[in-house]
Design goal:
With 100 residues, the protein is mostly helical. The protein contains 4 helices and 2 strands. It has a single domain, classed as Winged helix-like DNA-binding domain superfamily/Winged helix DNA-binding domain (Arc Repressor Mutant, subunit A), CATH 1.10.10. 52% of the residues lie in helices and 4% in strands. The chain has a two-stranded antiparallel ribbon. Helix 1 packs across helix 2, helix 1 crosses helix 3 and helix 3 crosses helix 4. 19% of the residues are buried.
């Protein structure tokens, strides 16, 4: 993917971005809405980058590696996103009406 000339400081599709209003402002890969958290979660579940590539076929290996490198440097930020997402999911499930 070529650099987008209309975006200042855009250095390619391996950029990790935190954009207010997009995915809660947490880090995402490139110009996607795929959070770094998602890449880390798949790696934790399956234990290898090949599984992450299979799970996210729209990402390149370089993008996945950039996400993992970001996590290595900023684990607290990504873990915060995971915890926030887990809490939101638990709240949603708790509000769901029971079928009985």
């Amino acid at each position: 993917m070529a650099a987008a000339p209309h975006l200042p400081n855009y250095d390619g599709d391996t950029t990790i971005r935190e954009t207010p209003g997009v995915m809660g402002g947490y880090p995402c890969i490139g110009m996607t809405r795929i959070p770094v958290r998602g890449v880390v979660e798949v790696l934790r579940r399956h234990g290898n980058v090949e599984a992450v590539i299979e799970y996210f076929p729209q990402l390149t290996r370089a993008q996945i590696e950039a996400g993992l490198a970001y996590y290595e440097k900023h684990p607290a930020r990504v873990d915060e996103d995971t915890e926030t997402n887990d809490r939101a999911y638990a709240e949603l499930v708790a509000r769901k009406p029971k079928p009985w």
